[in-house]
């Protein structure tokens, strides 16, 4: 049974059963964290995300169908298109302070207290004005150095350093660090 999502859906229908979605943006951010964690295999990722969004009962159903619904919900009803690997310019965890401040300033929403539907959160995030702190930070990260000379170039390099994202280590990198530390202890 196909289903079209309306604005801010609260339920999905699978096998003629109405299933409540955990729509809180915090849950969706946890799902995103799970989806990008390379220490978790694809089956475990799917099970974890389905459980977080639809509850324990969903684990007894057609996991593939629930997985598709999870992707559709987490993509805010838009068609999910895999993007080529690029240098990241945004990270929910590292930019969280900017997000909190901008939501409070621009929308009067306190993300530490207020419950917000994922789709509303996403629309607010994408609707931040150009003068918001997060928009300014992202603009600096994306600003090319090409064509910049002298003091302008130096200022941009310093600005980029001040807002650059910290590299998140892959599981392989963490394993190599651990091995190196063990070798040093010997």
Q: Care to describe what's here?
A:
The structure is a single chain. The protein has 186 residues and is mainly alpha-helical. It folds into two domains: 11-74, no CATH class; 84-186, no CATH class. The protein has eight helices and two strands; from the N terminus they run ββαααααααα. The chain has helices at residues 25-35, 42-54, 63-74, 96-107, 118-126, 133-142, 150-163, 171-185; strands at residues 11-14, 17-20. The chain has a two-stranded antiparallel ribbon. A hairpin with a 2-residue loop joins strand 1 and strand 2. Helix 1 packs antiparallel against helix 2, helix 2 (42-54) crosses helix 3 (63-74) and helix 6 (133-142) crosses helix 7. The longest helix has 15 residues, at 171-185. The N and C termini lie far apart (60 Å). The model is unreliable at 1-5 (pLDDT under 50).
Write the layout of secondary structure elements.
Elements: E1 11-14, E2 17-20, H1 25-35, H2 42-54, H3 63-74, H4 96-107, H5 118-126, H6 133-142, H7 150-163, H8 171-185
Antiparallel strand pairs: 1-2
Helix pairs in contact: 1-2, 1-5, 2-3, 6-7
Features of the shown structure:
single chain; 186 residues; mainly alpha; two-stranded antiparallel ribbon; disordered N terminus
